[in-house]
Amino acid sequence: MTATNLFHVGVLVSDMDEATSRFSEVLGLTFKDPAVAHVDRFEQKSRVETLDLRITWSVEGPPYLELLESQDNDGLYGRAQEGLHHIGLWEPDPEALVERLMGLGLKNEATQYMPDDRILATYTAPDELYGTRLEFIEAGRRPGMEAWLAGKEWLD
Length: 156
Description:
The chain is α+β, with helices and mostly antiparallel strands. It contains three helices and eight strands. It has helices spanning about 15-25, 95-105, 140-150, and strands spanning about 5-15, 35-45, 45-55, 65-70, 85-90, 110-115, 120-125, 135-140. An eight-stranded mixed barrel has the order 1-4-3-2-6-7-8-5. The chain is globular.
């Protein structure tokens, strides 16, 4: 893993439409139409649940700017977490990475799983890295994401 795997920065916002307009105005970015990201299995602490999260991405990048709309709860995407939320990186082997990071003293805060139980994305807790949360996304999703960001259909 190196910093060259960095591909986006996520910001949690309370109002997607307002935030999209403001970031466009300030940074000159163009955003994709908001979509709902659905995850069948999302684990955080002792909770396991489904996740539906409204998101949008800048089309300019990398690094891309991801806006995520906060939810009315106390979880990873809750209102108390608004602001700079995470730095997103591609990771070819998320399972091994989790073990390595735990060996470095970082804690796993939450994990999203694919239907086949492989890790889709995993988040480190911000406490052990100067308040910075890292999101590691399974690198096999990269071609689909890049196609989608370029205005094409998601590639499987």
